[in-house]
Amino acid sequence: MDKPTAVVDADPAASAVRQRKVKKDLAEQVPVLDDEKKKLAVPAQIQSSISAATLGREKKISLAYKAAFLIITGLSFLTRTWGIGDPGQVVFDEVHFGKFASYYLRREYYFDVHPPLGKLLLAAAGWFVGYDGHFLFDNIGDDYVANNVPYIALRSLPATCGALIAPIVFLTLKEMKLSVVGATFGAMLIVLDNSLITQSRLILLDSMLTLFAVCSVYAWVKFQKLKHIPFTPRWYLWLSLTGLGLACTTGVKMVGMLTIAAIGVAVLFDLWDLLDYRKGLSMRQFSRHFAARALCLIFLPLAIYLSFFYIHFAILIKSGPGDAFMSPAFQDGLKGSEVSTNTSAIPYYANVTIRHRDTSAYLHSHVDKYPLRYEDGRISTQGQQVTGYPHRDLNNHWTIEPVDADIYPLVDHYVPDEEEQERSVRYLRHNDLVRLKHARTSTYLITHDVASPLTPTHMEMTTFKANGTQRYNETLWRVETLDGEDGDKVRSKRGHLRFVNAVHKVAVHCHKGLLPDWGYGQQEINGNKAVTESFNVWWFDEVHHARIVNGTEIGVEDTEVKAKKSPKPGRRLSFLQKFAELQGLMVAHNSGLTKPHPYSSTPITWPFVLRGISFWERKDGLRQIYLLGNPAVWWPAITGTVMYAAMWIMDRLLLRRGIDDFGNRVRNWWDSTPGFLFLCWALHWGPFFLQGRMLFLHHYLPAFIFSVMVTTCVIEFVSLRVSETGAPERIPQPRRRSVAPRQGGVVYWIAMTLMFLVATAGFAYFAPLTYGTGFKSIEDLRSRKWLASWDLQHA
Amino acid sequence: MLTAHMPGAKEQPQEDDLLRKRKPTKPDTSVAAEEHPVSPSSSAESTIPSALDKDDSKTLSKTPVDDDDKYAPRKLKSAVAVATSAAPTAEADTNISLGVLVTLTILALGVRLFQISNPSQVGDCLDTPAFDRYSGGQTPEWVVFDEVHFGGFASKYINGTFFMDVHPPLGKLMIAASGLAAGFDGVFDFKEIGKDYIAPRVPYVSMRLLPGILGVLVVPMSYLTMKNLGAANATAVMTALFVAFENALTCQSRLILLDSILVFFTALSVQMWTHFQSVKNRPFTLQWWMSLALCGAGIGLAASVKWVGLFVIAWVGLSTVKYLWDLLGNPRVSSMVYIKHFMALATCLIGIPVVIYMLSFQIHFMMLPKIGSGTGFMSPEFQSTLQGNELTETFAEIAYGADIMIRHENTQGGYIHSHKHFYPTGSKQQQITLYPYADANSIIHILPALEFVNKTAVEPQVVEFKQIKHGDVVRLEHGPTKMKVHSHDHRAPVSDAKGNFEVSGYGAPGFLGDSNDHWRVEILDHDPENPYLFALQKFRLIHQNTGCALFSHAVKLPEWGFGQQEVLCSQNGKKQLSTWRIDFNENPLQPETSKKVGYPKPSFLSKFIESHKVMWRINSGLDGVHPYQSRPLSWPVLSRGISFWSAKAGTAKMHLMGNPLVWAAAGAALGLYVLLEAIAAVLSKRQMTYVAGVFADTTRGAGLLFMGWVLHYAPFFLMSRQLFLHHYLPSLYFSILLFGVLFDGITRRILGGSSILQWIAASLGAAACIAVFVSFSPLTYGLPMSKEHCQGLKWRKEWDWDCK
Prior knowledge:
Chain A has 795 residues and is an alpha+beta fold. Chain A is built from 23 helices and 16 strands. In chain A, helix 6 (151-175) packs antiparallel against helix 7.
C-alpha cells in the first residue's frame, strides 16, 4: 500500500504531512479530515498571534482593494469615453443597430437575427434624450450632426457597459482570492485593450454582451463562495443574479448560449459534487439544491428572456420593414400592414394567385410540356408543366371551382348559409374540396402516380383538360388551412394552407430545386406523400373577383366595423406563438448569414490577432478606425491560457506517478478557479469552429476576457511559487477570510510591472487606430502594420 | 467554512453505519475488487478464477471476509472502474470452441454467398440520379457508392489509367486484384446500372466474392471478440448469429462495394484490441505482441479502405490513452518499463498503420502510370509523372515579344484564355477567362509597357532579346484577337464585390490602348541577384493603376462564358489564387543557347499530399441531392433503406434493409447501457456499493463497445456532405456486440449463471433473428417474391420499396 514519496522536503514535519496525504489520496480519504488534523497541529497560541498580526495588515489590504477598484473604474471610463463624439459619422455596424433603435422609437416592426435586449436598451437611451427616430443610419459615413442625431447619448450606453467590464473583472479576480496587485493587473489589461475600447465606443452590441457575460460569471463566483450558507437570502440572491445575467447575455445576442453552457457545466460539476455521500446531504436536501438551481438558472432566465420579447412586441405595433419576414397571421397583428388591410374572404370562381410560403414562388403553369424522356432515361407523361415561378405573371392565375357532388358523391351537396344567401356568393372554407383551373389554359391541376422530374420519390404534377368525368376525382384538392376549424372562411394574404389531393393523398410541394432548360430554370413542383412537411405550405395572395375592389369586398364594411366593435380578438397570435415564430426565423436567418464579407475571419486566427476589421476611414486613410486587439495583451493572454492547460496536464501526470507537487488545497484552487475560467474561455471560443456562418474578430471578445483572467491567475501562481519556494500550499488561502492573500516577492513585482508597462505602450501605440485620431504621415500608419495580414487602409 | 467541518464531524459514525448495513453484501464488492486487474490485492495471483462461470454462492464461501474496513471507498471505486474500463478479467472463459467457430463460418458462408451471382447485371443504387456532380467535362466517377464505380475503378487499375476517387486505394486495389486473378481484362467499363455481366464474360462473381468472403469472416470474428470480452459461449454464438443474419450487412457484402471490406477490417481491429486487453497483464509476451501488431495492421487497413477507418483508429487511440493512464498510476511499473510500453504501443499502433496507409498509395501510384480521367484534378507537376501527358519542356528565359501561355496555380482552371465573345455586363468588352486546355486562344503575346510622348502613347519596338525581370511593367496581348488584357473600374461579372474589378480584352485597330493595360510582374520569392522571370517560376501580375492582382478562383461564368472559370482583378484576393506560371514560351528572338525546362517530377510524399488535398476537396464537394440519402439521426431507428437494384421485369429487387429485430435489439442495448451506467454512477456516489457493483458487473466490457459505437456514429453529425444508411454499418457492428455483452451480463445475473438456461435464452433470440432475416431475405438477395409478402414486410410506412 505504501508508496515512496518522491518529494524530499527539508522540513520533516511538512514532509510527514505530505506523506500522509499521498497515502490518503490513494485511500480516497476525506480531505476535510486532513485539514482538521493540520489545524490541530498548529498550537493555539501561535494561531492567535497570527490573527492579531494580520488584523492590521488586513485593513490595509482591504483599503488597497478599494483604491484599486476606484482607479480601475476611473481609467476604464476615461479610455472608453474619451473623444466619443468623434467621428460624428455612421461607423461600421452602427448602420444596423442605430437603425433598429430608430425603429423602436418609431414603433415600426423590423426583423433582426439578434434578440431584442441590446437594441431595446439603445432605444431607451435615445428615448431618454428625446430622440424621435427620424434618422435611419443608411450608409457608413453619413453625418450625425447634420442630421441632428443625439449620437453621443446612443454611444454612451455601450461605452458605459464597456467601461464596467474592467471593474467587474477586478471584483471577480478579487473573489477568486488573487492579491491586490494580481487583480489590478488583470483588470488593467482589460482597460488597456484596444479592441474592447473600439467595440465599446460605437453603437454596437458586443460591449453589452460582454458585460452581461462577465457579470454572470461574477455572480456565479460570488454564489460559489456562499456554499456554506445554502438557502439563505444572500445565497438565493446571487444564484438568481447569475440567472439574470445569463438571460441578459442571451437577450443581447444568441452567443449568450455559450455563457449558459459554461455556467451549466459548472453547475453540473457542482451538483455532482453535492451528490457525493461524503457531503452528507440527504436525497431530500439534494433535490432542494437541484430545484433551487433549476428555478434560478433555467426558469427565471427563461421568463426574463421571454419578457424581452414581450416588450419587443409591445413596442413594435406598426407595420414596418420586417413585415415581409413574418407569416401572414403575424403581420395581421401589425397596424397598417397590408395583410390586415387588404385581406378578403375568397369567393368561388375568383381568380387567385397562390404563393409558396418558404420560397415565395407562385404556383405557375404554362403551355410547355414535360419532355418525353428525362436525362436519366425515365419517361414522363408529357403533360403540361406545373412549376414554381418567382415573378408576377398571368400564368400564375388559378380559378377556384367547386366540386360537382353528382360526379364525386363523397362530398356533401352545397347549402349556402345565411350570409352567403344574402350576398349571393359562396366562400371558400377550410377543408373544402375544390378544383384548381389554370386560367390561361383552362386546364385543371392534377397529379398521378408518375415520378416527378427531379425527385423520383414524389409524384408528377401536371394539368388536365376537362373531359367529362374522366379522371375527375384526381383533379380534386382539399384546402387545409394550418390552424383552421370547420366553417372558417379562407382569407387571402393570411392563413397558411395545404392542397391535398383527394385520391392520392399527396400535398402540392415546391422546393428550391430548379428544372433544367426545358423548364426554364423554374422551381419544381410535385406531389409529396409526407403531407405535413414544411415545404408543402402555401397562401393565397391576390384575389380577383367581381365583388372585390382594391382588395376589399364590396358590402362587407358593415360587418367589418361590427367585428371591430365586438371585443372578440379574432384569431390573433398569442405572445408565445409570436415568440416561437420570431425565434425560429432568427435561428434560420442567423445560420443563413454566409455571404462573404471582406473582413470576416476564421476562429483559429482570433487569439493571435492575425487580422482586424476596418470600421471607418477618411479618404486619405490617415484617420481610420481599425478593430485590433492590443498585441501586448492578446499574445500574453493566449500564451498564459495555453500554459495553464500544459501545467494542468503536467500536474495530473506527475500525480499519477505519485509526485504531488501542488498539494490538495492548491490543486482545489487551481482546478476550480483558473479551471473554471479556462472552461469559460474554451466554451466561448470552441463552438465557433462548428459554425457555418460568417464570423468576425469581435466574436472572440468574451473569450478573450476569460483568457486574460486565466493568464492573470497563472502569472500570480507561477511567480508566487518562484518567489516562495517550498511553500506552495500557502499561496491562495481559499478557506478563511481572516488570512489575506499573500503578496508576492520581487519576481512577482517585476513580472507584473514589466508586463503592465508593455501593455500600456502597446495601447498608446495603437490608440490612433482605436480612437481614429489620425496619424501625422502615411509612414506612421505603415509602421503600425506589424503583420502583413493586418489590412489597414492605405498601408 | 461551516460545512467543511460538519460532514467531517459526522463522517465517522456515518461510515460505521454504512459499513454495518453493507456487511452482508461485502463478498460481492470484494469480488469486484479482485477482478480489477491493476488492483494491488488481486494482482498477486495472476490466475483469478473468472466470475463468469462462477456461482455467486461459491464465491461467497471462497472469499474470506477479512477485508479492512477503511479501504471500502477504494474498493467501491474499483468496482466502478471495472465497469468503465471495460477491462475483461485476466483469464476469461477461454474455452473457444473450434467446432463452434467452424460451424459459424460455414453458416455465414451460406448466408452471405447464397446466389451471389444474382443479379447478373451491374447492380446497386437503382435511383442514381443522372446528373453528376462533377460535370464540366469530367467523367462521372464521383457519384459515390456504386458497383458502377468500384467495378469501373478495377478496370482502370487493370488498364493503368489514372483516376481520382474520394476513398483511399486499398479496397479498390483488392477488388482489382480479385478481378485480375479471375482473368478480368479491364475491357468492360461498368458504365451503367443494369448492364449485363454475362455476355461480356466479366468475372463478376469472383469480384463479388472478395467483399463476400470478408463479410463471412466478420461472423467468426464477432464470436472471438465476444469471447475476448468474457462472454459465455451461448451468448457469443448468439451474437455471432445476430451478425450473420443481419440483412444490411449481408446485402452490402454481396456487391462490389467497399463497406464490407471496411467492416471486416474494423472487426479485425476490434477482435485484436479486445484480445490485447485480455492479455495486457502479460506484457511483452508473444501473444501480447501479436495482438498489438495485428491490431495496428487492422486499423491501418481499415483507414486505407475508407477514411471512416479513422474512427476505429480514434477508438483504439482513446483506449490506448486509458491504458497508458492506468499504467502510469501503477506504482510497480518503473519509468523504463513505462517507456518500453509506450514505444511498443507507438510502433504498433502508429508506425504500422502509417506504413500500411502509405504503402497502399505507393501501390496505387505504381498501378496507374498512364493519364486518365483523373488527370485534370492534379497539378502539372503531378501530371508530368504520368505517361502520355502533354506537358513539354519549354525555354526558360522569358523575353519581350514571346508567345507564352500563363497557367493559374492552385485551381485546376488552366490557362488565361480569350475568345471573340463579350461580357454581357460591365464594360461589355471581350471576355478573359480561364480554360483548362492549351489551345491557340490561350497564347498571349507579352509586350513592354506603352511609352508616352506628349501624352500620346507610342508602341515601343521589340528588336532585341530583352528578358523580363521582377518589377517590369508589361502588356499582355491575346494572340489571335490582338486584344490587350485590361482592367478598369467595373465590377467583376460574377464575383461582384468591392475590390473585385473586371478583366477584359481591350483595344481596336489603330488604337494602341491605354495605361489600364499595364501590369507589373512580381516574382514570388525573387532572388535580387537574378531578378529575371523564368518559365515555371511563380509570379503575380499587379495592375499598375489600381494595384489589384490578376486573380482567378473556382467560380464559373454562366452560359455566356461557356462555363469557363472567372478571371478578375482583386485587391484583397488570396495570394495563392493570384499566382501564375508560364509553361509555354516561344520567342523568335530566343537565342539558340537557351535552356529548356520542364516541370520537376514530384517525390512520393508530395504526390501523396496532393492526392489528399484533392480527395478532401472532392469529398466535401459531395453535396448533391440523392433520393436515398439520409441524415445520421434516422440510422439507428432504421427509418429507410436504399434501393440497390430492381429487375426490369418481375418482382425481384435488391434493397439495403437491416434486420429490424437486430437493429431494435442493438438500439435497446445502447439505451440500456447508458441507463445502467448512469444509475451505477449515481448509486456509487451515494455509496450504495452493493447495487452499484451489480450494475458494474452486468455492463463489464460494454464501455469499450459503447465508445466504439459513439466514435463511429457521432462524427457523421458534423458532416454536411450527403450520407447514406450504409455509413452506419461499422457502428451497427459495435452495437450488436454491445447487445451481446449486456445480454450476457443480464442473463447471467437473472438466470444465476446456469449455462443451460442461458443457452435456451440465446437460442430463442437467435431463432427470432433468423426468422426475421428469412422473411426479409428476398430484398437482400434480390429474389422474386409475392406481392402480398412484399407488402407485408412494410412494417413502417417510411419503408418505401416498390411492390409491383
